[in-house]
């Protein structure tokens, strides 16, 4: 019996896969528990249309992420923070600070979790910051941390 798995089933397969199982296992275990449906023409057509929609959605997300990354890479972000004479910051620049700076400068909303800092920035200088966007889009942006001039 061929079934389409609706959920991941251990030792059988993952969601959306078409698998051949014994008739008893399919009728008495998988189908009654909502883990699978029998693979007929209408169910296979529905599965294919869902896969197509999912691929289109992933393509839209990836394209939007690539556009966002290219916009971010065109800019050089300068963050001014209070610091000591040696360039050591009073506090640190975090991914949340970088995200809010991007929002203030460009008006683009970016989640702080998409900004990958190995550790918080605690010194003035130039930094390359990794960005990991949805759709497996990765890149780097330039961030310069400067001392805040007090008048």
Description:
With 151 residues, this protein is an alpha+beta fold. The protein has two domains: 2-58, Ribosomal protein L9, N-terminal domain (Ribosomal Protein L9, domain 1, 3-Layer(aba) Sandwich), CATH 3.40.5.10; 64-147, Roll (Ribosomal Protein L9, domain 2). The protein contains three helices and nine strands, in the order ββαβαββαββββ. The longest helix is centred in the middle third of the chain and has 34 residues, at 41-74. The chain is elongated. The chain starts with a strand and ends with a strand.
Number of strands: 9
N-to-C series of helices and strands: EEHEHEEHEEEE
Structural class: alpha+beta
State the domain count: 2
Given as residue ranges, the uncertain stretches (5+ residues, pLDDT < 50) are none
CATH fold call of the largest domain: Ribosomal Protein L9, domain 2
- Which radius of gyration do the C-alpha atoms yield? 25 Å
């Amino acid at each position: 019996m061929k079934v389409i798995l609706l959920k991941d089933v251990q030792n059988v397969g993952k969601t959306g896969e078409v698998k051949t199982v014994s008739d008893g296992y399919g009728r008495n275990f998988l189908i009654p528990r909502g883990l699978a449906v029998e693979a007929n023409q209408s169910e296979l057509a529905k599965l294919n249309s869902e896969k197509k929609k999912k691929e289109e959605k992933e393509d839209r997300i990836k394209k939007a992420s690539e556009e966002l990354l290219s916009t971010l890479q065109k800019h050089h972000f300068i963050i001014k923070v209070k610091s000591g004479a040696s360039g050591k910051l009073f506090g640190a620049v975090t991914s949340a600070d970088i995200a809010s700076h991007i929002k203030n400068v460009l008006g683009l909303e970016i989640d702080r979790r998409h900004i990958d800092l190995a550790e918080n920035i605690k010194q003035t200088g130039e930094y390359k910051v990794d960005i990991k966007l949805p759709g497996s889009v990765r890149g780097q942006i330039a961030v310069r941390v400067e001392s805040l001039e007090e008048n």
